[in-house]
Amino acid sequence: MPARAKAATLETLTQRIHRVYDSLPEGERKAADLVLDMPGELATWAASELAEQAGISNATVSRFVRRLGYRSYEEARRASRAMRASGSPLYLAEGGQRTGKPARTLERAIEIEKALIDASVGMQNPLTIDAVATCLAGAARLRVAGFRNSYFLAEYARTMMAQFRPGVEMLNAPGQTLAEGIATVGPGDAVLIVGLRRRPAGFTDFVRAVAATGADVVLLADLSIRGAPAEARWTLNCAVETPQAVDSYVGVLAILRTVALVMLQRLDARGRRHLERIEQIHANLSELE
C-alpha cells in the first residue's frame, strides 16, 4: 500500500472530512457539516437518514463518503462506531444537546447514572468480589495503578483502602517511572489496576509486566478491554458508556467502594485498629475540622 494511502486509512472520520472540506460541492458540504456537528450519529443513521437530515439526495451521500476514501457508506458507519466504542467524547455526544432544557438534561443524566450503577453491579459475582477483597486485604503490599481518567479512580481506591490497612501506595506515582513502581512488588503482593477505555498505548504490556513480578493482579475495566484480562488473576467489569459526550464512572466508584467495604470486613479487628490509629494521629495533629 502506498504511504499516502496507508496514512489515509489511519485518519479518523472527522479528519478525513476536514482534509477535503474546502473542495466539497455544496450538497456534499451539507452532509459534511451535519456529520462534523454530530459525528457519532453516523453510527446509527442509515444513508437515507443522513440524506434526509442534510436535505440532499442519496446519490450525494454516496459521492460524499467515496470522496472521504471509504468504499461504501457502511464502511464510514463502521469508522464512526469504532470511535464511539473507543470512548472518544467527540463521537459520544448526543444530537440535539444544544437545544435541550436544563431540567431535562439533569433528569436524563440521573437516569443514565442509575442505569450504569445497576449494570455495573449486575456484572459482579459476589464470590469474585469476596475473593478480590480477601486478596487485597491479606497481601503483604498493596499497590494501585491507573492512567488518564483511570488515575483519579485508582487514587480514590488507594485513599479508601489505606484507611483500613498499611502498605497501600500508587504504583505509578507522579515523578517515578513505571519500572521503578513495578520493581517494588513481587510474590505475596497485590496490584489493583484500573483500566477504563481510552487507555494509553502499551497498557497490556504494563499489565503483563506487573503480572510477571508474581504479584496478584486485579483488573477493573470496561467491556472494551482486550488482551490485558489474560494477564490478571481477576477482572471486574463495569459499565461506563453513555450516549453523552463523556463516560460516567459512577458504576466503577460503586464497585470500588463495595470491594473496600468487604476488605474491611475481612480485616476485622486489624482494620479497625489501623483506622483508630489514623484517627488518633489526626486528633494529635489537629488536622481535620
Automatic annotation (TrEMBL):
This is MurR/RpiR family transcriptional regulator. GO terms for biological process: carbohydrate derivative metabolic process. It holds the Pfam family HTH_6. Residues 11-87 form the HTH rpiR-type domain. One of its GO terms (molecular function) is carbohydrate derivative binding. It comes from Thermohalobaculum xanthum.
